[in-house]
Amino acid sequence: MIGLDTNVLARYLVQDEPHQARLATRLIESCNADNPGYVCLPVLIELVWVLGGAYGYPRHDIAEVLRDLLTVAELHIEQPDLVRQAVQAYATGPADFADYLLGVLNAAQGCKTTYTFDKRAAKSSWHTLSA
User: Fold this and answer.
1) What's the pLDDT tens digit per position in 20-71?
2) Could you say which of 46, 71, 81, 100 would form a disulfide bridge with 6 (CB–CB 3.0 to 4.6 Å)?
3) Per residue in 16-36, is it b (16+ CB within 10 Å) or e — as a string?
4) CB of 38 within 8 A of CB of 69?
5) How far apart are CA 17 and CA 95, in angstroms?
6) What predicted TM-score, i.e. pTM, was given to this entire model?
7) Residue 38, SS3?
8) DSSP 8-state class, residue 42
9) Interatomic CA distance for residues 14 and 50, integer angstroms
10) Number of C-alpha atoms within 13 angstroms, CB side, residue 97?
11) For the chain, which residues make up each domain, given as ranges?
């Protein structure tokens, strides 16, 4: 297994910088089910930020990219079941992906709720607005 950084994954997905896109494509396409590319949770959080902030992808497109990544046999996504829950909430809710992922992760660890000052995140079942 090899670890994949956000910039490698982003270059592969966006294909905007020819040299780096070729290198990222070669690297990622060399992965297979026996030797997958590992995508950790911080990479997913950064990827959402990069796709939305730097490239202007709309939320529904970013959610679709995340769903697609979860189905690729050549990639091993950290905690895929929890990521799926966060992606579903992100696709339909008002908060950031990182907020939903944080709430899901905390709930999986037994937390009753995650307190936040973020009013958008507080609309999820995993969060409570701090007052």
Assistant:
1) 999 999 999 999 999 999 999 999 999 999 999 999 999 999 999 999 999 9
2) 46
3) eeeebbeebeebbeebeeeeb
4) no
5) 30
6) 0.93
7) strand
8) H
9) 10
10) 29
11) 2-78
